[in-house]
TrEMBL record:
Binding site for ATP: 7-20, 101, 165, 190
EC number, as in UniProt: 6.3.4.-
Species classification: Bacteria, Bacillati, Bacillota, Bacilli, Bacillales
Entry protein name: tRNA(Met) cytidine acetate ligase
Family listed: Belongs to the TmcAL family.
The UniProt record lists the keyword Iron: no
Reaction catalyzed: cytidine(34) in elongator tRNA(Met) + acetate + ATP = N(4)-acetylcytidine(34) in elongator tRNA(Met) + AMP + diphosphate
SUPFAM superfamilies recorded: Nucleotidylyl transferase (SSF52374)
Species assigned in the record: Sporosarcina saromensis
Function description: Catalyzes the formation of N(4)-acetylcytidine (ac(4)C) at the wobble position of elongator tRNA(Met), using acetate and ATP as substrates. First activates an acetate ion to form acetyladenylate (Ac-AMP) and then transfers the acetyl group to tRNA to form ac(4)C34.
PANTHER family: TRNA(MET) CYTIDINE ACETATE LIGASE
Record's keyword terms, sorted: ATP-binding, Cytoplasm, Ligase, Nucleotide-binding, RNA-binding, tRNA processing, tRNA-binding
InterPro entries on file: Rossmann-like_a/b/a_fold, tRNA(Met)_cyd_acetate_ligase
Pfam families: HIGH_NTase1
Annotated localization: Cytoplasm
Length: 413
């Protein structure tokens, strides 16, 4: 059987994501689509709208055959590390290709851009280093370095690396090259709203950002209904009935604030991504503000993007330290969250050839990275609260991989 891979967050899964999975299958002529999906905390440093189990159900009912969890260390990292973790897992599970959505919609510009950066690596890295030393954010440093090497080439068909999906796509290709993967990269044109677009429009494809904004501003799921498949609607309605609310920083802020004030600046300095004394600014803001938005407004500066600060806060909440991060240079397992019948058949056919251990029960592996995943899931569940008097702490130990016979049929809750 032939497999193609995609990297997803599904926060939540919407019509554009269904199109991506369909096109990945069709363009690669694959038998199965394999998704590497972030857990309960995401790449932009946010709690997920709903947990990884709910999003796995969405995926399996919307065109995906296998879902593996991207470990916390990679799921909450900046783009190059995020991409490296995801591509490593897709390669380890035997994908012959991977497919990403992009603003360009053509793989040639990405191939050209990767080749150009390889040819000018010394200059490129020097510009990045100097820009960061001068106080530029990492994304702006990358933009400056890329612009500088573009000025010295006659190649005109290059990827626009100011666009969020193009940036991630480029890093996926860069990661595949770095690990020596034989997977073929493919891309499809992103349809509808831009990645960060916050408004919902008349077309049937909206951004996940817009969908979440709509819910949190109205408290209703009515506006989002045209933009998500039936499986997502059903799962979100069930979640709302059980939990009453969805994941965001406003809900999580009391736990974050408590952690910041308990730890104090000295201990905060040991947390991953905390640098250059920003722990003091974070501590002072937590002392003053009892809501997330004014807290962030005080901490935010030109040197640190909103996303970078959110990643710091995620690590503070979960207690993820610099020392822990250094012990996790690459993914060390394949954590299975769910599968269709075709996905299960594929796994059986490649099980002996997997290059990382397959984990379907977390009790079978003692691993620092897996322990971090479990801790993050438990803290997420605690912040949202239990539903219907059923404890949600320890779900990683209690929940087997979700199985569906085919899209739209779920036989495991």
């Amino acid at each position: 059987m032939k497999a193609t891979g995609i990297v997803v967050e599904y926060n939540p899964l919407h019509n554009g994501h269904v199109y991506h999975a369909q096109q990945a299958r069709e363009t690669s002529k694959a038998d199965v689509v394999i998704a590497v999906m972030s857990g309960n905390f995401l790449q932009r440093g946010e709690p997920a709208f709903v947990d990884k189990w709910a999003r796995t159900k969405m995926a399996l009912q919307s065109g995906v055959d296998l879902v593996f969890e991207l470990p916390y260390r990679f799921a909450t990292a900046h783009a190059p590390i995020f991409a490296r973790g995801a591509i490593t897992l897709l390669d380890a599970v035997g994908c012959s290709s991977f497919c990403f959505g992009s603003e360009d919609g053509d793989i040639t510009p990405f191939t050209n851009s990767l080749s150009l950066i390889n040819q000018t690596e010394t200059v490129y890295e020097t510009v990045i280093k100097k820009a960061i030393q001068d106080g530029r954010s990492y994304p702006n440093a990358l933009k400056e370095a890329y612009t500088s090497i573009q000025d010295n080439t006659s190649q005109t068909q290059l990827a626009d690396l100011t666009k969020p999906n193009n940036i991630l796509g480029f890093h996926y290709m860069e990661a595949a090259q770095c690990i020596g993967s034989m997977m073929k990269p493919t891309t499809i044109q992103r349809r509808g709203a831009d990645y960060h677009e916050a408004d919902l429009h008349a077309h049937k494809v909206a951004s996940a950002t817009g969908i979440r904004k709509s819910y949190f501003s109205t408290g209703s799921m009515d506006e989002m209904e045209p933009f998500v498949p039936q499986a997502t609607k059903d799962i979100l309605f069930d979640w709302q009935a059980e939990r009453g609310h969805f994941g965001n920083w406003e809900t999580f802020y009391p736990y974050l604030r408590y952690t910041i004030l308990r730890e104090g600046p000295i201990r905060l300095a040991s947390i991953a991504d905390i640098t250059e004394g920003i722990e003091n600014a974070i501590y002072r803001a937590a002392l003053k503000h009892d809501a997330f938005q004014p807290f962030m407004a005080q901490v935010k500066s030109k040197r640190y993007t909103w996303t970078r600060i959110q990643r710091m806060l995620t690590h503070i909440l979960t207690g993820f330290t610099v020392e822990q991060r250094e012990t996790m240079p690459a993914p060390s397992y394949l954590r299975l969250l769910g599968m269709t019948g075709d996905g299960q058949t594929y796994l059986r056919s490649v099980k002996k050839h997997l290059t990382l251990p397959l984990i379907s029960k977390v009790a079978t592996l003692s691993n620092d990275s897996l322990t971090m995943d479990i801790r993050a899931a438990d803290l997420y569940a605690m912040a949202l609260g239990n539903c219907q008097h059923v404890p949600k702490i320890g779900l990683d130990y209690l929940t087997p991989p979700i199985r569906t016979h085919h899209f739209g049929s779920n036989d495991s809750k």
